């Protein structure tokens, strides 16, 4: 009888211990979730600037990311310098068709000569941001490609360096041996930290393909960052990542949009088609060098993007 009573007490004691452990873990988990949610919301409040607000168009309606409707994104990589508004040295348009599980990516050469909407001038397309920030850059790209821009992502390029370092670097397959000053990038699979990735994405004159080679490398780095950011391991670095993003990124994606976006990207299976300007030519006008797109090729690119957004 005493043995049964003793065993019963031991069982109750062990049960209490396990309940205490489970309760403690649950409490820690809930605190973590609460803190993470607070941090995420704080970051989103900081980086989120609706395109309606950015363009000043009161009649514009904010689009919502769904698993059905196609949408477009303008990515602006801006070099912000002291006493300078900065220029969008990287301008990439991405169109996404969730139903087809496809993405198209177009890098616009920064020296492209076009009408700057809202500035009453014809200039290099990357000057649109310098003249009027995100609103003018968005309006100018919409006019240039004759498609609506639903979303934008602004990234301070120095911050881009920190983002790559925070996720532990990126690995890409480099298609050409390249050297820039003390930086050397051998052909084949290479792993880049933020500093090396930034230089790698900017090289132009050392690549015989010029700006087109630079566009290929930018696409590779963006794909590598997206791939790394969609892995579960990134959650362990979430707090550091949010701090860096909060300081260097502005966008009009909401939290719900980003959750949908991650789900959509996972279904893409890396199916990203690269569009590029291959037939255009450089020309000096008033002693300023411009890239002049070939009209037929430009119309073909416009048509491809429009069809993808149908």
UniProtKB/TrEMBL annotation:
The keyword Plastid does not apply. It holds the Pfam family LytR_cpsA_psr. The chain crosses the membrane at residues 17-40. Residues 87-230 form the Cell envelope-related transcriptional attenuator domain. GO terms for biological process: cell wall organization. The keyword Disulfide bond does not apply. Keywords: Membrane, Signal-anchor, Transmembrane, Transmembrane helix. InterPro entries: LytR/CpsA/Psr_CW_biosynth, LytR_CpsA_psr. NCBIfam families: lytR_cpsA_psr. Belongs to the LytR/CpsA/Psr (LCP) family. This is Transcriptional regulator. It comes from Lysinibacillus xylanilyticus.
